[in-house]
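Hi everyone,

Forwarding the result from last night's run.
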Amino acid sequence: MNIEFKRLAEIDQSEVIALMNNPSVRRQMPLFKGDFGDRDCNEFIAAKEKLWTDHGYGPWAFVVDGHFAGWGGLQPENGEADLGLVLHPNYWGIGKAVYKEIIDLAFGEMGFETVTVLLPPTRKRAKGLFRIGFKRDGEIEVGGECFIRYRLDKRFR
């Protein structure tokens, strides 16, 4: 299995739209309301590309054996590097491999000391985060929605 990290702008927008409208994916994304169409996709990709321009990092598209599998990575959230991972259900099994590459970059060449993950309170299964070293670190509001913040310290990973 070959996993490539590409920029979201390199992915056919119809594939991004299909992912973002997938019911299993949407259940985990409370900030997205209604249908995700062409205009939403254009704005979404432009905003993610702007993160790269303004901060030097942002989310990637994940391509597995030539097929778009999802997007995620690190993006600034309240002055911190926040890790997100949005995979099509057909690719949920690659999450650990993608996570490892992202976290190695975060604590390696990117030089971050901590990384956060934000999960909606409806996401009841956080045991996996605890197993890999994350600790609960309070709650935060983003876009009018409450999220539970988890933090991984480079020293304890």
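DSSP finds five helices and seven strands in the chain.

Cheers,
N.
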